[in-house]
């Protein structure tokens, strides 16, 4: 009677895909769940005798120079868009990262218009990710220079018959 797939479950599926992608990237980086604790620090910039980056780690997940230089929480390391990670790190403590983290990572209780990121393809491949219009409006500085993400967002939107978000990509 309700049909399949049900439209009211679509947001849950989108959120699940993002969650699945981030768990996959956590594993690809060789992180443990302990590194997702609220007080955790990225192993990329702290002496961590129990951590060595996996040499087979996908190239887009490998740490940037800023990730190695600036102390930060490991949630930032999970996204396969190096420019996005660096943009977040450049602002340091000059903004409240909790709302950003919630919009990028939360799995439950986020209304559709506030969904930030969508993962469609391989979690470690930037071409499998899309940003929402709401995310672009709220966090434009996070996206500075994220050309691969601009292209992939436009591609996924065009596949659904929606207008491009980024002109020229």
Automatic annotation (TrEMBL):
Signal peptide per UniProt: 1-28
Keywords annotated in UniProt: Signal
Source organism superkingdom: Eukaryota
Entry keyword annotation includes Signal: yes
Pfam families membership: DUF3425
Protein name per Swiss-Prot or TrEMBL: Uncharacterized protein
């Amino acid at each position: 009677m309700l049909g399949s797939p049900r439209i009211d479950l679509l947001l849950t599926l989108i959120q699940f895909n993002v969650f699945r992608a981030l768990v996959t990237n956590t594993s690809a980086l060789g992180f443990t769940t302990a590194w997702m604790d609220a007080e955790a620090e990225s192993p990329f910039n702290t002496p961590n005798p129990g951590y060595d980056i996996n040499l087979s780690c996908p190239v887009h997940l490998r740490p940037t120079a800023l990730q190695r230089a600036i102390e930060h929480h490991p949630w930032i390391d999970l996204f396969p868009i190096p420019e996005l990670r660096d943009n977040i790190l450049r602002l340091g403590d000059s903004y409240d990262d909790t709302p950003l983290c919630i919009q990028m990572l939360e799995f439950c209780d986020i209304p559709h218009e506030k969904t930030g990121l969508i993962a469609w393809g391989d979690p470690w491949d930037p071409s499998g990710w899309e940003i929402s219009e709401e995310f672009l409006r709220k966090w434009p500085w996070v996206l500075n220079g994220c050309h691969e993400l601009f292209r992939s967002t436009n591609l996924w939107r065009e596949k659904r018959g929606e207008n491009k978000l980024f002109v020229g990509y």
